[in-house]
Specification:
By secondary structure, the chain is mainly alpha-helical. The protein is 69% helix and 0% strand. It is globular and about 70 Å long.
C-alpha cells in the first residue's frame, strides 16, 4: 500500500489487527489532543477562547489531571471559571428577549474542547479510511483481516459510508464492515448466554467457567461503548 501524509495514520491503526482499529484511532487522537492542550496551546488566545466557552468533559479532566504540567490546567481553569462567572452566573438578565445565559450554560455543561478536537479529526480519518477502501485493494484485504469493529464505530463508519461512498460501492462496504462486527457480536452473545446459564439451576455445569465467560459482561460493555472497562 502506498503511504501518503493522509494514509499513514490510517495504515498504522489498521496494522495491528487486534481489537477495533477505530478505537485505536480514537485513542491516538485523544492522546494527541490532551498533549496539545497541556502544552503550548494554553498560551494561544484562540484556544483559550474555546476552552473558556466549552471547557472539558469528566473523561478528559481525568486524563489531564495526572499529567505533569498542572499549570496548564490551572491557567485554563482560571479564565474558564472567570468566563462562567462574568458571562453566565453573575451576568445581568436581559430586559427583553431570550436569556443567552441559558444557552451558554448548556454549551459548557455539554461541551469539551478535547471531544470536539477528536470529533473533527475522526471525521477526516473516517473519510481517509473510506477513500483507501475504495482505491486500494491491499487496504480492503487489511480491512477484512481486522479482528472486529465495535458497535459505536460500526455505526459511525456505516453512517459515513452511506453519506460519502458511491451508491454502487456502499453495499459491499457495509457487508465487509458487518462481517467484522457480527463476528464479535455473536461471540459475545454466546459468552453472555453461558454466563447467565451459570445462575440457572437447571443447567449442567462442569468445572469453573472459562475466563471469556467470566469477563463477558465487561467485554460486552466495551463492545457497546467503545471504551475499555478496565
Amino acid at each position: 500500500m502506498r503511504d501518503t501524509i493522509y494514509t499513514i495514520p490510517v495504515s498504522e491503526v489498521f496494522e495491528p489487527k487486534e481489537g477495533c482499529p477505530l478505537c485505536r484511532m480514537r485513542d491516538m487522537l485523544e492522546e494527541r489532543a490532551v498533549e496539545y492542550i497541556m502544552g503550548a496551546a494554553m498560551m494561544e488566545p484562540d484556544v483559550r477562547q474555546m476552552t473558556n466557552k466549552v471547557g472539558f468533559c469528566t473523561e478528559h479532566f481525568r486524563m489531564m489531571l495526572p499529567r505533569k504540567n498542572r499549570l496548564s490546567i490551572g491557567l485554563m481553569l482560571q479564565s474558564h471559571l472567570d468566563y462562567i462567572r462574568t458571562e453566565i452566573v453573575d451576568a445581568k438578565a436581559p430586559l427583553v428577549g431570550k436569556d443567552k445565559r441559558v444557552q451558554l450554560a448548556k454549551e459548557i455543561s455539554g461541551g469539551c474542547f478535547v471531544c470536539d478536537r477528536i470529533a473533527q479529526s475522526m471525521d477526516r480519518m473516517l473519510d481517509n479510511t473510506l477513500q483507501m477502501w475504495v482505491k486500494e485493494e491491499s487496504f480492503r484485504r487489511l480491512f477484512d483481516e481486522q479482528e472486529t469493529v465495535c458497535f459505536p464505530h460500526y455505526t459511525e463508519l456505516l453512517s459515513a459510508a452511506q453519506e460519502k461512498l458511491p451508491k454502487k460501492q456502499f453495499p459491499a462496504f457495509a457487508a465487509a464492515l458487518g462481517r467484522l462486527t457480527l463476528r464479535r457480536l455473536e461471540e459475545l452473545k454466546g459468552d453472555i448466554d453461558e454466563f447467565c446459564n451459570l445462575f440457572d439451576y437447571r443447567a449442567a455445569h462442569s468445572g469453573p467457567a472459562p475466563d471469556e465467560v467470566k469477563s463477558s459482561i465487561e467485554r460486552s460493555a466495551a463492545f457497546l461503548s467503545a471504551r475499555s472497562m478496565d
